[in-house]
Amino acid sequence: MFFVPQFPPHLTSYDEYVEEYVSDMLLRKLSPSRPLWEFHFLNYKTTNGEAIMIVNVHHMLGDGASLVALARAYSTRPSHNPTLSQTLISSTSHHTELPAQVHKIRSLDTTWFGFDGLYRVWNLVFTVMLVMWYTLLDLITTFSRFKWVEDSMFPIRGRPGVEMLPKVIASNKFKPHDIREIKNRVGGTENDVVMGVVFYGFRLYCQMDLP
User: What pathway is it annotated to (predicted)?
Assistant: First the structure.
């Protein structure tokens, strides 16, 4: 489904209109009689860009991380200028790379005999047992919470009817120079810095008072 909303013309910025539009969109459930995805094209200038495309997808089709990874996997940047926006990959973009990849896979050592083979078998068995153990712990914890323990009230859970409250989209900007400076000081990676900021913000949000 594709939507192109119309806002009042000749405004300097449409930030408030976009925020209100997104808030109303999040309150509306996707109809099961229609495709469980929507593309909203907002051809209006905001502080974040000249235009905005909003993709509303049902969680059944994928979560946020997997959908973003899928979009990045099917997009690329021009090699002559990496600063340009990403574009979709054509069906023949990686045609010449496939034989080399297949040859590399075929050349892998798949020997399961000798000391190396025993180590692989033991590592596989240990991994399976570890997964089964943690799965059992998760099942016990989930069942106990469902049966006896009640979750505490915090913004993620909220009171009954909290899903019908208006949503507000908040954003912030970070300069790449600041992220790299923090990375160098803590001795991590840029991804560590970004994830630290995200989880710290999530923690502060969970500590907020309920509306």
Answer: Lipid metabolism; Glycerolipid metabolism; triacylglycerol biosynthesis
Whether the full predicted model's pTM is greater than 0.85, yes or no, is no
Nearest to 16 by CA among 42, 55, 53: 42
Residue type, position 139, single letter = L
44's CB contacts (< 8 A; 6+ apart) are 7, 11, 14, 17, 18, 51, 52
Q: Are 43 and 18 in contact (CB under 8 A)?
A: no
Half-sphere exposure of residue 41: CA atoms within 13 angstroms, side-chain side = 5
Residue with tokens 């000391």: 115
- The token pair that represents 108 in the structure block: 């892998």
| Tens digit of each residue's pLDDT (9 = 90 or more) over 21-52 | 888 888 888 888 888 899 999 988 888 788 88
Q: Is the pLDDT of residue 133 over 90?
A: yes
DSSP assignment string, the chain: -EE-----SS-S--HHHHHHHHHHHHHSPPPTTS-SEEEEEE---BTTBS-EEEEEE-GGG--HHHHHHHHHHTEE--TT-TTSPPEEPPTTTTTTTHHHHHHHHHTS-----HHHHHHHHHHHHHHHHHHHHHHHHHHHHHHHHHHT--PPP-TTT-STTGGGSPP--------HHHHHHHHHHHT--HHHHHHHHHHHHHHHHHTSPP-
